[in-house]
């Protein structure tokens, strides 16, 4: 931006304007003048990037000095353009009012050239310095925001890496987790739209979505002969397989962080994403809303994704069939509120379900 | 010449010269003073009993006289300004006679040196 270089002189009396003009005539500044408040505002609007200082008379026709100050406050000019009020006499009320409205200084008529130039110089320097400091601060803020963004990116990267270990071991493609994250996000946004703003902030949604990636982390502790078995699991094997919910929590507990929201979501999702509303899920057989909403959401999207995806050992179901099975309770009972949200989100979920995952050729 | 003028009208030449730098400049401002319309507004306000208008004229004229270092004229204009601010039109009418007389004298003296 160009350096500000113009002083605006506002006074209805020509002699007063001329006196001020003479004072700055030989100086480094361009001069503009206005003979009433209205004209001052017009000139201000046209030259707000150029004006470095305003001398403003208090008593003027059309709009007076206070009205000009008021206009400047309303339009965010008062912090970048200093105003020196000129006034015939000191009345406490008008002085207080002028300072309240953001005047930088007040000088009284008659003018003393030496005093006027000195004060003008000081105030211009002061505002220059202030604007500089504000810019510095803003740049610093920008840096902070960027480093926060970088930390968030690394977090997401680490979570993705961690969760893909499990998928890698179970010989699945890494996409199941990415889809669970996507579907979880869709569900949370629909949940918020359906049941109120208070439910989840954008920050909470981000945390829960990241936590959803870790839902099966406990599978890392399941032996190969069970995890990789292609045939049907025996009762004993199935009992061991179910323990991945507990194993996941045990792993998390080792680096538990007290009072940490993200930890809470990770823990709940690992442990409860196989619970069902009627209490017939595992590992704890929780009933109803004792199961945290985020775990309920991950549960339903986990089932959905498993059903619509083609696996080595099974074909995929169609989306409509999958929706019907979930709504009819064929994959365990989900809460009415959750199903309502799931159906509300159907269009978005379909849009994010790919033909590739369903094993269709285009 | 200018210095003499200030003496005749009971003004303060020293202040004027420090403010306006040189006689040339002072002359320029004396010329502006002739064009200034605040006295007209004071007079019109007084004649039509318009206190508000008279006050605005007096207020401006006071500032101008102070800037010009017309010490005596500015003192009596200040007096009438305060009377008009208090809306005491009767007192202001008395003072106005003095203001008129003094203002006309100043104008006359300015014309002499122009």
Task: Write structural notes for this entry.
The complex is a heterodimer of chains A (362) and B (114). Chain A is 57% helix and 7% strand. Chain A is an alpha/beta fold. In chain A, helix 6 (175-195) packs across helix 12 (293-308), helix 7 (202-212) crosses helix 11 and helix 11 (261-272) crosses helix 12 (293-308). The radius of gyration of chain A is 34 Å and the shape is rod-shaped. Chain B is mostly helical and 114 residues long. Chain B contains seven helices and no strands. Chain B has helices at residues 2-8, 13-20, 23-35, 38-47, 51-68, 71-85, 89-113. Chain B is elongated and about 40 Å long.
Please outline what is shown here.
The complex is a heterodimer of chains A (362) and B (114). Chain A has helices at 14-24, 37-47, 65-74, 92-100, 113-169, 175-195, 202-212, 224-227, 235-242, 244-254, 261-272, 293-308, 319-327, 336-344, 346-351, and strands at residues 6-10, 30-34, 51-57, 83-87, 105-108.
Query: Mean of residue pLDDT of chain B?
Result: 90
Question: In total, how many beta strands of chain A?
Answer: 5
- Tell me the domain tally of chain B: 1
Helix fraction of chain A, binned, reads 55-70%
Provide the low-confidence segments of chain B as ranges. Answer: none
Helix proportion of chain B = over 70%
User: In the CATH hierarchy, what is the class of the largest domain in chain A?
Assistant: Mainly Alpha
End-to-end Cα distance of chain A, whole Å, is: 54 Å
| SSE succession of chain A | EHEHEHEHEHHHHHHHHHHH
Do you know the CATH architecture of the largest domain in chain A? Answer: Orthogonal Bundle
Q: Could you name the CATH homologous superfamily of the largest domain in chain A?
A: Hypothetical protein af1432
Strand content of chain A: 5-15%
CATH class assignment of chain B: Mainly Alpha
Determine the N-to-C terminus distance of chain B: 10 Å
Number of helical stretches of at least 4 residues of chain B: 7
Please state the overall shape of chain A, judged from the principal axes of the Cα atoms: rod-shaped
Main sheet specs of chain B: none
Shape of chain B, please? elongated
CATH architecture of chain B: Up-down Bundle
Radius of gyration from the alpha-carbon trace of chain A, in angstroms: 34 Å
Helix/strand/pairing class of chain B, anyone? mainly alpha
């Amino acid at each position: 931006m160009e350096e500000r270089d113009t002083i605006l002189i506002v006074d209805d009396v020509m002699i007063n304007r001329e006196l001020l003009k003479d004072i700055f005539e030989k100086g480094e500044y361009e001069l503009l003048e206005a003979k009433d408040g209205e004209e001052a505002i017009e000139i201000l609007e046209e030259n707000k990037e150029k004006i470095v200082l305003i001398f403003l008379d208090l008593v003027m026709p059309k709009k007076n000095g206070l009205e000009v100050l008021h206009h400047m406050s309303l339009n965010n000019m008062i912090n970048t353009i200093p105003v020196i009020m000129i006034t015939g006499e000191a009345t406490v009320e008008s002085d207080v009012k002028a300072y309240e409205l953001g005047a930088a200084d007040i000088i009284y008529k008659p003018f003393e050239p030496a005093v006027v130039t000195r004060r003008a110089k000081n105030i211009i320097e002061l505002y220059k310095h202030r604007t500089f400091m504000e810019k510095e601060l803003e740049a610093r803020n920008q840096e902070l925001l960027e480093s926060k963004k970088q930390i968030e990116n690394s977090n997401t990267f680490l979570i993705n890496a961690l969760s893909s270990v499990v998928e890698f071991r179970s010989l699945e493609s890494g996409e199941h987790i990415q889809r669970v994250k996507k579907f979880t996000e869709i569900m949370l946004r629909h949940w918020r739209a359906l049941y109120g703003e208070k439910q989840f902030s954008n920050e909470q949604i981000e945390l829960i979505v990241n936590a959803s990636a870790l839902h099966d982390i406990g599978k890392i502790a399941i032996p190969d002969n069970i995890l990789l078995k292609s045939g049907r699991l025996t009762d004993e094997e199935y009992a061991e397989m179910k323990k991945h919910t507990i194993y996941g929590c045990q792993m998390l507990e080792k680096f538990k962080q007290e009072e940490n929201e993200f930890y809470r979501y990770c823990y709940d999702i690992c442990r409860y994403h196989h619970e069902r509303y009627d209490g017939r899920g595992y590992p704890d057989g929780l009933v109803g809303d004792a199961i945290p909403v985020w775990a309920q959401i991950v549960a339903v999207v986990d089932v959905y994704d498993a059903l619509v995806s083609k696996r080595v050992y099974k074909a995929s179901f169609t989306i409509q069939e999958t929706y019907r099975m979930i709504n009819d309770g064929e994959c365990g009972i989900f809460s009415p509120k959750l199903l309502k949200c799931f159906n509300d989100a159907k269009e978005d979920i379909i849009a994010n379900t790919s033909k590739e995952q369903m094993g269709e050729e285009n | 010449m200018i210095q003499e003028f200030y003496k005749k009208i009971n003004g303060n030449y020293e202040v004027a010269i420090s403010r306006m730098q040189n006689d040339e400049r002072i002359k320029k401002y004396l010329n502006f003073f002739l064009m200034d319309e605040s006295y007209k507004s004071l007079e019109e306000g007084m004649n039509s009993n318009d206190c508000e208008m008279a006050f605005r004229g007096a207020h401006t004229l006071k500032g101008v006289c102070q800037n010009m270092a017309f010490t005596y004229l500015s003192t009596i204009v200040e007096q009438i300004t305060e009377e008009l601010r208090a809306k005491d039109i009767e007192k202001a009418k008395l003072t106005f006679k003095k203001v008129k007389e003094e203002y006309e004298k100043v104008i006359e003296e300015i014309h002499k040196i122009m």
